[in-house]
Amino acid sequence: MLEASGARVTREYYFNDHGAQIDRFARSLLARAKGEAAPEDGYGGQYIDDIAGAVTAEALAAGEPDPVSLPEAQAQEAFRSRGVERMFGEIKSSLHDFGVDFDVYFHEDHLHETGAVDRAVQRLRDAGHIFEADGATWLRTTSFGDDKDRVIIKSDGEAAYISGDIAYYLDKRERGADEVIIMLGADHHGYVGRMMAVCAAFGDEPGRNLQILIGQMVNLVKDGVPVRMSKRAGTVVTLEDLVDAVGVDAARYSLARSSVDSSIDLDLDLLSRATNENPVFYVQYAHARTVNVARNAADHGVARLRADGAEAFDPTLLDHATETALLGRLTEYPRIVAQAAELREPHRVARYLEALAGDYHKWYGERRVTPLGDEEVTDVHRTRLWLNDATRQVVANGLDLLGVSAPERM
């Protein structure tokens, strides 16, 4: 939607592959490869077993020793490097199958390996926003509205978690991003204030140069009962589970039609039905119906142009209330897209499409595009075909913005 509104956009995925989280992941893989339970602070689920087995098989296939047989530190590093690569490969594959591909896959570890963290800290130090206390290095974020100052280098010399985010924001700005839009999960709500303070500490404008969207939890319901478990992940429902249950189009559309700051309840039974109660079916069926109407019109000799090649659209011939409503709704589309982009609210497009589909279905029930019997083709039929085809184009455009297909037959 930002691109449709004229912006140049780079889509970027940030891999958290540095620090304690990845250490726990590596220890969990090693434990499972040894046949032991995952560490208390580690990760469980069938996917950990799968990755641990794959890492071992990959090492043996390459003629390397069984990583389990290595000294503890080497074994953990073997499972970390290969396990992280495999995990991120699966993430990319899952996203691609969902119709989501990124221009850049950025690794947090890169910031630490290249010295980007140190450079970002030095820049803030030069600006006078860094101080030392209790053996640690702090960023004075309270000067920019945060509720307390933040440790960025701990007393043991290790970089704090926020240091990577500081360096990453600066890296994006130095790569030419005028507006950095970051999507975070619901458990990161408390992170907004400190990151906005970081933005201001670099001399940027919070809310413009840095924008943070907080997504909420998605709850799945089947047969009236919450779906809580995934056989593969152990504790969560995966994206693959959702796609397997309802398909890519229904999954994408159902997620896009809700505001990002609202929790989402997805009824798997409803999304699997080919009925008007299913919102994605309702909109896609409107598109398929417009295609069928155009097909029938061609069979009956109705075209948008007269025999002499002149356009036959005459809005004065659209005199029914359903035609007025449909015309009015179509004119709203550019404004809806611009508003959705400006407010970062793609659900506005989905809700608009549902309203447009409703107007079209009502019009379809009241007006004919093709002549009856021996009735002659007139500009009324041709004008109605224009209205039909305009609806088809707008529905297709809107679905395309949401990454949902516009089927021609259903």
Automatic annotation (TrEMBL):
Q: What is its EC number?
A: 6.1.1.19
Q: Which UniProt keywords apply?
A: Aminoacyl-tRNA synthetase, ATP-binding, Ligase, Nucleotide-binding, Protein biosynthesis
- Top-rank EC class of the record's enzyme: ligase
* InterPro entries, alphabetized: Arg-tRNA-ligase (IPR001278), ArgRS_core (IPR035684), DALR_anticod-bd (IPR008909), Rossmann-like_a/b/a_fold (IPR014729), tRNAsynth_Ia_anticodon-bd (IPR009080)
Membrane-crossing residue ranges in chain numbering: none
Q: Quickly give the catalysed reaction.
A: tRNA(Arg) + L-arginine + ATP = L-arginyl-tRNA(Arg) + AMP + diphosphate
Task: Outline the extent of the DALR anticodon binding domain.
Answer: 283-410
Task: Please give the family membership noted in the entry.
Answer: Belongs to the class-I aminoacyl-tRNA synthetase family.
Q: Which NCBIfam families match?
A: argS
This one is known as Arginine--tRNA ligase
